[in-house]
Amino acid sequence: MNRLFAQASPRALAAAAALLALPAAAHAAEAEVSTDVSELIVVGQGDRPITVQPRGLSVSLGQTEFEAINAINVEDLMKYAPNFFVRKRFAGDDNAVVALRGANTVQSARTLVLVDGFVVSNFLGNRYDYPPKWNVVGPAEVRQFDIVYGPYSARYGGNSMGGVISVTTRAPEGREVYASAQTMIMPFKEYGFDETFKGYSAEGGLAYKQDGGPWSVRAGFRHFDNVGQSMTYNLLSPTTGTGVAVTGAYDDKRLATPVFGAASPVHVLQDQLRVRVGYAADNGWTFEGMGFAWLTNQDLTDTRSFLKDAAGKPIYQGKVTYGGKTWNATGLTLSETKRTEYLAGVRAAGPLAGWDASLNVSRYWIAKQDARSSKDYLTGAANGAGTQTLSRTPGWLTADGGLERRLGDHKLAFGFNANRYETDQDVYNTTVWKGAAGKTYSASTYGKTSLWGLWIEDVVSLGDWRLTGGVRYDKWRAFDGGIGKLLANARVDSAYPEREDSSVSPKLSLQGPLPGDWDLQVSVGSAVRFPTVGELFQGKLDDVTRQIDPQSFDPNLKPEKSRDISVILRRSFGPVRTTTSVFWQDIDDAVFSFQGLNQYGNVVSSYKNIDEVRQYGVELILEATDILIDGLDVDANVSWMNAETIKNAAATAAEGKMFPRIPEWRSNGNIRYRINDAWKASLGWRYATRPNSDLFGLSRGDAYGFQSEYFTVDGRVTWAITPKAQLGLGIDNLFNDQAYVAHPLPQRTLVVDIKSRW
User: Fold this and answer.
1) Which terminus of the chain is less hemmed in, N or C, by CB atoms within 10 Å?
2) Which one is predicted more confidently, 531 or 8?
3) Alpha-carbon distances of 495 from 476, 484, 571, 752, rounded to whole Å
4) Dihedral angle sign, alpha carbons of residues 573, 61, 72, 605
5) How far is residue 38's CA from residue 513's CA, in Å, rounded to a whole number?
6) Calpha distance 655→609 (Å, rounded)
């Protein structure tokens, strides 16, 4: 504890103290606040019990909040949560990584995501392309989102270093049929684009609960079809000699060289099927099984070049002359990806010898992942040479269980967590890229990790106060890791040594009332996040050399180790409830995937340990019901953060710099107005200041390739046509803010949906 507080700078403590006092001025009128120890400090909880342990800042979102959101994909339902951002580049994006506080948008392994208790976090890697498997559930099936910030409960492993997100679906309550249809329209204009991208989705299902019987079932299906804007722009690279004289490039002073083309707009087709079956026994035990199938097809074969020769013919690659200089136009390709994924899980809960017992077991696997790409544009257009990447059933197996009971003033709980993640992929060179013909072996990466965790937690009632103490032990193993290469026309494999490690993570939280109707919670804890199988073993294929990039993985990475403090103050002032959260986190051996653009305009990355990274900050949250006029509700939040590299012996120039992709300020919020029984309107916003784009603070900008500031305003109006049918009309990014997470974010988008339940 002494070290925790000693490392917090005087500036941080002064800022925290000043901001802690702000809610006292929110409103002169005071309201009585319950100080019962059973009450939880949860933002937006309402009457819904939270499904995760609420220590540290905790947020619960339900139908009231969901109805005010243009939810194209399920992760949209969280977008106004405090100090929160989802890296969603387009509707249907597979790479929607959560950024909680200082866990940035390429640190996907720092957030644990559950759907109905089943793990859907993709800890096969820790990067922008390893997001949670959000599509396990459709937007129409979600009953509740619960978010806990930070690793303050012993029940969750080190991947909760950033936080825990729990998605709860609707339970069958009788006989129900539901259906929804939605369309998305996005005019997009940038560089050589001036066109409208469109998409739609259709979702439906049924629920049945046996009258007077034990059985229940819920089944749903969703079809999604959308074309998103290009994710990558291609820049000219300087060269010598002479080339074809061209026009059409874009001289953007914010970029190093002119823009000449773009990757294909992303055409995404998704089909998702979900089935959930329940059985409630007379002895109090409940059993549930869940099955899920997800088929994805991504087509990127509409690649664009903005260059034209003297005859007006498009030029896609080669040596060109533009603006009095000679350049290489290179990097454009064509590609297609097909993927089939499954989830199967069972869970049971009920009384056992005076204890409340629970057990969850699930398996998630990618049965097919076939990615095909051309060597370059011209070979792609001629269906010539390319690359095929095949995954051999990567996935994960998870299990957790626990026992809990009240013993006098104690509520004792203990349990276990276990998981196994494995990856295995082969890369082939092909003579016909689209049909994968003429296939010859090129490279392979493979490996496995496993983790066993034991935890115990005790909640002690101390009058009006509640003290929670816990500790967890984790045993980690990395094994069967290696890389295969083609040498002298033969495959040669290099195996990496097996590794084992373990950790002990204590937690402590105290909650209770203070004079003046304030509620206080103080939590401290530590967490250890072990490297993922992807960080250790899964090398990334270089887009140009077509070989495994040796800098894209590291089998010797150390685990990340954090020490955390959270202080929360809550008070109500009439119809206004304020929550102030102060947090501090110090991480040793932080794993960072450095990303940037190479000379071809392609994203490259490499993993490394950073000796010490520290973040601290303050979040101010306001919830108001029927404020000023009846029917007007407001949820608003603002956060300030300081996240910086404290020590990095391998590259000392990074020390003292703001850690990449973490803004200093964020603000999210939503204003909802119930016009009458049939009509509702809402206005939401998301804002963040510009973060650094690299580790050294040298790369900052508001154009493609950088992490930019953003300020988007969203509007929505809904009409209850009948008690069982609703029509919604919304606009996301109303003022058409152009922002980037290296890739361009969506521009103004019209969303129309109709929903019905009967």
Assistant:
1) N
2) 531
3) 19, 9, 57, 53
4) positive
5) 12
6) 13
Which tens digit of pLDDT belongs to each residue from 368-394? 999 999 999 999 999 999 999 999 999
User: Furthest-apart CA pair in the chain: how many Å?
Assistant: 87
> Which amino acid, residue 674?
R
How far is residue 527 CA from its own chain's centroid? 20
Over range 590-607, report the average pLDDT.
60
- Tokens representing 732 are 């996301």
% of the chain beyond a pLDDT of 90? 83
Question: For residue 13, how many other CB atoms are within 10 A of its CB?
Answer: 14
d(CA 163, CA 48): 20
Look at residue 598 in the predicted model and tell me its pLDDT: 44
Arithmetic mean of pLDDT, 140-155: 95
Contacts of 25 (CB under 8 A, 6+ apart): none
Please, how many CA atoms are within 13 Å of residue 107, restricted to the half-sphere of its CB? 26
Per-residue exposure over 272-296, b if at least 16 CB sit within 10 Å of its own CB, e if not: bebebbbebeeeeeebbebebbbeb
The set of residues, in sequence order, having a beta carbon less than 8 Å from that of 453 and lying 6+ positions away, is 157, 416, 417, 418, 472, 473, 474, 475
**What is the pLDDT at residue 488?**
87
| Token pair belonging to 692 | 């650094």
Question: How much is the mean pLDDT over the chain?
Answer: 90
Nearest to 591 by CA among 539, 524, 551, 532: 532
Whole-number Å distance between alpha carbons of 62 and 47: 10
pLDDT at 448 over 50: yes
CA 594 vs CA 565, 604, 608, 610: distances in Å: 27, 8, 8, 11
pLDDT tens digits along 12-43: 333 333 333 333 333 333 332 233 334 679 99
Report how far apart, in Å, the C-alpha atoms of 742 and of each of 11, 350, 351 are.
31, 48, 51
Residues 43/59, Cβ–Cβ less than 8 Å: yes
C-alpha triplet 124, 145, 630: angle, nearest 5°? 155
Residue 198 burial (CB count, 10 A)? 14
Which residue pairs from 630-633 have beta carbons closer than 8 angstroms and sit at least 24 positions apart in sequence?
631/673, 631/674, 631/675, 632/671, 632/672, 632/673, 632/674, 633/64, 633/671, 633/672, 633/673, 633/674
Residue 688 has pLDDT above 90, yes or no: yes
Question: Of 508, 408, 516, nearest to 462 (Cα)?
Answer: 408
